[in-house]
Amino acid sequence: MKRQITQANLSLVSSELEHYESNGLITGEQKNGILQIYEIKGGLNFIRVVVTIGALLVGLGILSFIASNWDGISHLVKLLIIFGVFGGVNLAGYMLSENNPKTGRSFIYLGTLVYGAGIFLIGQMYNFGGDFPTAFLLWSLGILPVAFLLKDKYLMLFANILFGVYLYGSFDMNFPYAGWVGVPVVYLAFNYFEKSRLLLCSDLRS
To answer: Phi, psi (5° rounding) for residue 39?
Structure first.
């Protein structure tokens, strides 16, 4: 299977291979063989745009229907909808990551929002007790493994922001204990991402 890259990247690869060939590092046959591995990504076309817009409109229509009938839907169907959307979004992100990494990562980000919404919706459905900030703690803990796995600074930053909301909300209840839990999390994130300024919000301009 050929690797799809943009025209600009293919031109760069071709230029580098020509440089290697001129310096005797590779032969012309080897250069052509390497170039055969790649193919240019297909750009946007009218049909793809129409299909995408149509899919979005259908999706919005389904969401509108679900929202207008949410109170009349059984708990089982609600759970299936929540887990189905969560699984579908993340599966789409995983499948798109290889050939369309930016689009795939966007779906992963969307999946984290769906995960958080699911926590609040399930809590509302079953009238779970507990403190409101606990939902933000669960949301943060759910994002952390994905952030570490993908080595994504933005997900880690978002997880720490959610954890900060939890700490702020639990200040009058059990803040000292929550703070001790948060210290190693932030420390590990700080070291894992090579002391990123973005992670600690110390310099958003970097």
So the answer is: -145, 155
Calculate the dihedral angle through the C-alpha atoms of 112, 117, 120, 124, rounding to the nearest 10 degrees: -150
For residue 170, which phi and psi values (nearest 5 degrees)? Answer: -100, 15
Residues 134-150, mean pLDDT to the nearest whole number: 86
Q: Where are the domains of the chain?
A: 1-43, 44-70
Handedness of CA 128, 134, 136, 138 (dihedral sign): negative
Buried b (16+ CB within 10 A) or exposed e, 39-66: eeeeeeeeeeeeeeeeeeeeeeeeeeee
Is the model's pLDDT at 34 over the cut of 80? yes
Q: What is the pLDDT of residue 52?
A: 57
pTM: 0.61
Nearest to 152 by CA among 103, 200, 92, 108: 108
